Amino acid sequence: MKIVVGITGGIAAYKAPELVRLLKKAGHEVRCAATGHALEFVTRVTLETVSGAPIYSDLFASGRTEHISLKDWGEMLVVAPATANIIGKVAGGIADDALSTLLLAFSGKPIIMAPAMNCEIWAHPAVQRNVALLKSWGIRMVGPEEGELACGVSGVGRMAEPTLIADAICQGERLKVKGERWLVTAGPTYERIDSVRFIGNYSSGKMGFALAQALGDAGADVELVTGPTSLSISHPRIHRTSIESAREMYAAATEVFPHCNGAILSAAVADYRPSECADHKLKKNGSEGMHLDLVQNPDILATLGNMKTSGQTLVGFALETDNEEANAQRKLEKKNLDYIVLNSLRDKGAGFGVDTNKVTILSRDGKRRESPLLSKKEVAHLIVETITA
Ligand code: C5P
């Protein structure tokens, strides 16, 4: 792959040559684009020696328009370290030097950033807002969670180690999903009782959105079918279909699944819906209680399990409270799945609403992989890596 490594002026810039060396060793072609401040921390000669190419740092050097040629040349842009300044510039659409101009011109291709800054700066609402904005545009952050952790431990917003950044870059390459089409279901479903009420659940959609993002980053085209959620996603390879009820999710999922290489069903689908939906707001009827008659919803996962052809991979989730592994294993067989991702409600920090998760992935052929408590983003990468290995 042709990778542009962008380097900004943080102390962690001294680690950039090591990243360039690792990428070259992995067989990539690398060119560097550095800010003026970065060249205070790491010399031009060092970067030119490890990359084997001239450094792009001056917009006006001999009338060159490298931000255009590097934009065309590069297949991926990695900014390591990424200071609050460069993150803010991209968020604000500012292009006042070589690297920031290249970043704005690089749209439509993958961009990864490895933030590194002082703890207080990282925690500033403006920086957090900018990071969230960049993420919503599909820019991947390597190590922001680690950055937060590092803040707690050592007081410094450390950059992720070059090996971790190189892994994140190479991950997309290693995965077999590049060019494939995948279905992901996410979020809750709402089952209408009347014109203003519904039966729902607390699913936030975070796990499913992280899975869609991980698949998209790995080069797959993703059909994301999601129930009501406040989350937004903007990724050139993710196509979102928003639905409300289990039956709408069923219709959307069964329509696209025959055209997909695989599906990950992480939605928390309501098992039952009211047998009737009133077209007006139901009034109190004067009596003490009220009975809702419920009927069963279709099981989307089991249906896809029946439809599945030999080349397709089907992954389900299981949220269990007791006999977790045995129940999950049974579900895997009954629904004809290739993998089942088990969330245990016993684990603190796992499950609905929170940003973290802890899972055990069971495979049809008896393999088992257990994660520690990780961010949902990291869990998503682990799942994608496991099911495509
Ligand atoms: O059987 P159970 O509901 O525990 O299975 C959970 C898995 O099945 C999840 O992957 C969920 O997305 C999926 N599911 C579904 N359709 C349903 C119920 C669950 O796709 N009606």
Could you please describe the fold and organization of this structure?
This protein has 389 residues and is an alpha/beta fold. The protein is 37% helix and 22% strand. It has 15 helices and 21 strands. It has helices spanning 16-25, 38-41, 44-51, 66-73, 84-92, 98-105, 119-123, 125-136, 144-154, 162-174, 206-217, 246-256, 300-307, 324-334, 376-387, and strands at residues 2-7, 29-34, 76-82, 111-115, 117-118, 140-141, 156-157, 181-186, 191-192, 198-199, 221-226, 238-242, 262-265, 272-274, 294-296, 313-320, 339-344, 356-357, 359-363, 368-370, 374-375. The strands form six sheets. The protein has an eight-stranded mixed beta sheet, with helices on both faces. A five-stranded parallel beta sheet has the order 2-1-3-4-6, with helices on both faces. It has a two-stranded antiparallel ribbon with strand order 5-7. Strand 16, helix 14 (324-334) and strand 17 form a beta-alpha-beta unit. Helix 1 packs parallel to helix 10. The longest helix is centred in the middle third of the chain and has 13 residues, at 162-174. The radius of gyration is 24 Å and the shape is elongated. The two termini are 20 Å apart. The model is unreliable at 146-150 (pLDDT under 50). The chain binds cytidine-5'-monophosphate. Residues 185, 246, 265-267, 269, 271, 297, 299-301, 316-318, 331 line the site of cytidine-5'-monophosphate.
